[in-house]
């Protein structure tokens, strides 16, 4: 873990220095470098995300919880992270309005994904009241 965060920090510092230089000389290349850095970090973290999902699946199986709910929660978390990630890339490119739209869309998708869980909770509450 310590080595991985050191690698991320090192790459981030080098990228930041290059971005400071490029933004003055070639702003378009700075945006390309920023997006490339974002993709590299995303790919670097894919293994970690896969491990988290595998662990959650195993815990769900052991606890004998309906996997539908856990899968839905994982999807919601995924949408939140991907939406934030995409919005940050848009902001890095100077497209703040596009970033806001990405954030809005992610929030709507999260609400849609959470509807089955909310319905199940409400149905359970209604059964308890009867």
UniProtKB/TrEMBL annotation:
<keyword id="KW-1133">Transmembrane helix</keyword>
<feature type="transmembrane region" description="Helical">
    <location>
        <begin position="5"/>
        <end position="22"/>
    </location>
</feature>
<keyword id="KW-0472">Membrane</keyword>
<protein>
    <submittedName>
        <fullName>Putative sporulation protein</fullName>
    </submittedName>
</protein>
<feature type="transmembrane region" description="Helical">
    <location>
        <begin position="104"/>
        <end position="122"/>
    </location>
</feature>
<keyword id="KW-0812">Transmembrane</keyword>
<dbReference type="InterPro" id="IPR014211">
    <property type="entry name" value="Spore_III_AD"/>
</dbReference>
<dbReference type="InterPro" id="IPR025664">
    <property type="entry name" value="Spore_III_AC/AD"/>
</dbReference>
<dbReference type="Pfam" id="PF06686">
    <property type="entry name" value="SpoIIIAC"/>
</dbReference>
<feature type="transmembrane region" description="Helical">
    <location>
        <begin position="67"/>
        <end position="89"/>
    </location>
</feature>
<feature type="transmembrane region" description="Helical">
    <location>
        <begin position="28"/>
        <end position="55"/>
    </location>
</feature>
